[in-house]
Amino acid sequence: MHAVGIVPAAGSGLRLGADQPKALVSLGGRPLVRWAVDALRSGGVADVIVAVPAGRRDAFEAVLPADVRLVEGGMTRTASVRAALAAAGSSADAVLVHDAARPLTPPDVVARVLAALAAGARAVVPVLPVVDTTVVVDADGVINHDVPRAPLRRVQTPQGFDRATLADAYARLDDTAELTDDAAVVRADGVLVTTVDGDERSVKVTVAHDLALAELQVSTVRR
Ligand code: C5P
Predict the structure, then answer these.
(1) Would you tell me which CATH number, out of the four given (3.40.630.30, 3.80.30.20, 3.90.550.10, 3.40.50.300), belongs to the domain 3-222?
(2) Of 24, 97, 113, 166, which has the fewest CB atoms closer than 10 Å, so is most exposed?
(3) Ligand 1 center to residue 144 CA distance, Å?
(4) What does the pLDDT look like over 115-143, one tens digit per residue?
(5) Atom of ligand 1 lying closest to residue 21 CA
(6) Which residues does ligand 1 sit against, CB inside 6 Å?
């Protein structure tokens, strides 16, 4: 099975309070995007395409291995993945989409996603259980009802797909649709999405606190 990795990295650093694209923010001396690419490669995905913000190609080229392909991303994550998927062409059997915002994903997670695809899954995502009590509130913030948490899962990346299945789903997706992950894109096309175990270390860096926790994780491992 030939798998290609897609790393959407064209987001801004707005919620992180960064003055540069979030994917270029440093964690333990390495930009987040480099961690994400290395995670895919350590897990067995050698061929990687990164979607970068318009006008920032040079900055990304400077921090990534020379054999990583770069494409210009779009205004939304959906548009960025669409651009990278087009660049992937049709030679790969499988695609793993991994957010640059998840730098510390262990290689085991990547390997589990690849194994599920090799076993015949058309779409697979890593998930974790929800440990907090979870509720629905009304417009005033008053609790409306509890949600039974046993069947709930938090969805991570990399998300793995049969390449043609993902390409077909994106082709049929409304141009204006903005979905927050790729599993939602194939589900909108009627595809069943299976799950494998995610990992708590595969945190998503969104706000400054997440970056501080990730720094702690890196320094603990290095000690
Ligand atoms: O904003 P958020 O953290 O949810 O974005 C998830 C991933 O999608 C990030 O790695 C970000 O760089 C990427 N993204 C993108 N193009 C956009 C917006 C987000 O590639 N226009």
Answers:
(1) 3.90.550.10
(2) 24
(3) 32
(4) 999 999 999 999 999 999 999 999 999 99
(5) 12
(6) 8-11, 22-23, 51, 73-77, 80, 99-101, 206
